[in-house]
Structures are given as C-alpha cells and as structure tokens.
Write a structure and sequence with these properties.
single chain; 130 residues; alpha+beta; 8-stranded antiparallel sheet; globular
C-alpha cells in the first residue's frame, strides 16, 4: 500500500499481467515466492493489494502481511476475517476464496460509491420511458 508501480516491480519482480481499468485505475499481477500478488493502482499509488496462495494463510503470514502494509499503524481485528488500522486508514479482509486483501479507506469509499452509482444507473435505466 502506498507504493507506485515501479516500486512494486522492484519489490515483487516481473509482472505477469498489467492492464488499465476503468475510472483511472490500473491493475497488475505479480508472483513472489508462493504468493500471487495483485495490486490496484489509483492516483499513481497502490490503494489495494491482494495476496493469494495455495492453502490457508497461517496466523504468522497474516500478521506479517498486515505489518508490511500498515507500517507502524496498529491493527485491530474486527472479526475472524476483518481488520482495520486504529486510525481507520486501512482495512483488510480475508475473502471467501481465502485471499488476503488490504485497501485504503479512501479507495474503499471511491470504489463502493462508484459501484453504488453504477447499480443505481442500471436500475434507473429500466424505468426510462415509464
């Protein structure tokens, strides 16, 4: 979190896939050790990063990933699969597929606001002409 694409490439090595998305986002997929690492770059900075691997993450791996992305920010566990930094700047979730995802709260608001507008526009499109 917080690095640019070149810093990610220096840290993780060769990129497998890189592409531009919608709404000023870029995506890249890297491989490092036993992990697949996907990053979402928004405003020229990584605002979301996901880690995937075969099998479950150990408690030590989760703690390391949180520390690596949160720096000196202390994390608070909200549930078995959700964490947030005490200042609320970062959120982490273990998704249903067992992948660890971390994102900035700023990006989370941007993403979900866009998703909500897209759903609303689709719903309103069905009403056009009534």
């Amino acid at each position: 979190i917080g690095e640019n694409y070149n810093q990610c490439q220096a840290r993780y090595g060769q990129v497998y896939i890189k592409y531009d998305g919608d709404r000023e986002r870029q995506y890249a997929l890297f491989g490092k050790s036993i992990f697949k690492i996907n990053v979402t770059i928004w405003k020229n900075t990584v605002h979301q990063i996901g880690y995937a691997k075969e099998g479950d993450f150990s408690d030590a791996e989760i703690a390391y990933i949180l520390k690596a992305n949160g720096g000196d920010k202390p994390w608070r566990q909200m549930s078995e699969s959700r964490w947030i930094t005490k200042d609320g700047a970062l959120r982490a979730v273990m998704d249903d597929n067992g992948n660890m995802n971390i994102l900035t709260s700023e990006y989370g608001h941007y993403y979900w606001e866009g998703q909500s507008k897209q759903v609303q526009n689709t719903e309103l499109e069905h009403l056009r002409g009534l």
